[in-house]
Amino acid sequence: MAEGNSQVQAQAPLSERELQVIELVAAGLTNQDIAIQLEISKRTVDNHISNILTKTETENRVALVRWALQWGKVCIDEVNCCVLPPYKGER
Predict the structure, then answer these.
(1) Would you state the pLDDT for residue 86?
(2) 9-13, 47-51, 70-74, 77-81: least confidently modelled range
(3) Each residue of 12-69: pLDDT tens digit?
(4) 26, 83 in Cβ contact below 8 A?
(5) Which residues, including other chains, have CB under 8 Å from residue 85's CB and lie 6 or more apart?
(6) Dihedral angle sign, alpha carbons of residues 67, 69, 71, 74
(7) pLDDT-wise least confident of 2-11, 13-22, 71-80
(8) CB 68, CB 74: distance < 8 Å
(9) CA 80, CA 44: separation in Å to the nearest integer?
(10) Is there a contact between 24 and 37 (Cβ–Cβ < 8 Å)?
(11) Rounded Cα gap, residues 82 and 2, in angstroms
């Protein structure tokens, strides 16, 4: 079901901290590494991840990163980092 949910934006707005956590998940950090980076407890990171998965209707970290890329929430190795040219029909 997560596959189809990639078409849905977050049910509730993501907080600034949740967006930071998503960026670090996309960078490949573990929850423990995220906790160290953000100077918070691992349990707090676990709670953020759980809330993020619920809000984005994703089932795991891989689905979350796919969702974040699709909705432009993260930029990985120059993917999703540039503005695309307008569609041929637009001026």
Answers:
(1) 56
(2) 77-81
(3) 889 999 999 999 999 999 999 999 999 999 999 999 999 999 999 999 999 999 999 8
(4) no
(5) none
(6) positive
(7) 2-11
(8) yes
(9) 28
(10) yes
(11) 27
Whether 77 contacts 28, CB under 8 Å: no
pTM confidence score: 0.75
Write the burial class of residue 20 (CB in 10 Å: 0-12 exposed, 13-18 middle, 19+ buried).
middle
Most distant pair of Cα atoms in the chain: their distance: 50
Q: Is 5 left (phi over 0), alpha (psi -120 to 50) or beta?
A: alpha
Please give the Cα distance from 21 to 91 (Å, whole number): 37
Which stretches does DSSP call E strand in the chain? none
For the record, the structure tokens of 5 come out as: 């949910």
